[in-house]
């Protein structure tokens, strides 16, 4: 079988590979990534996003290569990608899961250095946090105390939970989450837990693609992926809650459905349709004041 070079910007055909865009992401699934005659190939089975065939991969123009379900990768492929500084991660369908071993780094450090500068300056760090709240609430809050901002966030989110639950016909009894036993809560709360995890995975992809520093959060502080949590929270009201409550209602109406599976499928569909990860990449660059080439504007 002759190989097909994926044509188009970055050597990729957007009509054939969703998310193959200016962000330098290449999504592959249901196939084998290997090296033949010094060229990276992906032998694909028929899938929702790619026709069956043997594709030559122009890895030199790709920032982050994402392998979806049903994919395998050879040792030679890993060697070639590492040599050329092309990142590789395994993801769930649509980016609802994100796996790397070990955590990845970028070949350039401009974004990381910009991130570190903003985080290390107390005033700049608070300014970024205030911008994050402005993105979420549609207004710049006048307060300059992070504890006060968190309190305002908590109150507004309580109201948002009630509103979105009502819009989807879900009986909402309040946010309940037992970290030791996350499945002990009711269906709406379980749905929020799953949906939040999927959106955090999408944020993981975006942060890795940009080369930002996951531990350096502007609102979250203690977690090793604090910045990822910051980024994911920007989408809690507009993505996490509608996703969670819509599927929770579906499962409540049809108890035979599996909650996590239904949420995972719906999240993958929404991530593709709404281009969630590319939007997260743009938002990350905006927050850190970096341009598409990874430098300061």
TrEMBL record:
UniProtKB keywords: Antiviral defense, DNA-binding, Endonuclease, Hydrolase, Magnesium, Manganese, Metal-binding, Nuclease
GO molecular function: DNA binding; DNA endonuclease activity; hydrolase activity; metal ion binding
Domain of life, source organism: Bacteria
Enzyme Commission number, as recorded: 3.1.-.-
Cofactor: Mg(2+); Mn(2+)
Single GO biological process annotation from the record: maintenance of CRISPR repeat elements
Chain sites annotated for binding Mn(2+): 153, 220, 233
Key word Cell membrane present: no
Record Pfam families: Cas_Cas1 (PF01867)
Known function: CRISPR (clustered regularly interspaced short palindromic repeat), is an adaptive immune system that provides protection against mobile genetic elements (viruses, transposable elements and conjugative plasmids). CRISPR clusters contain spacers, sequences complementary to antecedent mobile elements, and target invading nucleic acids. CRISPR clusters are transcribed and processed into CRISPR RNA (crRNA). Acts as a dsDNA endonuclease. Involved in the integration of spacer DNA into the CRISPR cassette.
PANTHER family: CRISPR-ASSOCIATED ENDONUCLEASE CAS1 (PTHR34353:SF3), CRISPR-ASSOCIATED ENDONUCLEASE CAS1 1 (PTHR34353)
Stated family: Belongs to the CRISPR-associated endonuclease Cas1 family.
Subunit text: Homodimer, forms a heterotetramer with a Cas2 homodimer.
Protein name: CRISPR-associated endonuclease Cas1
Gene transcribed to yield this protein: cas1
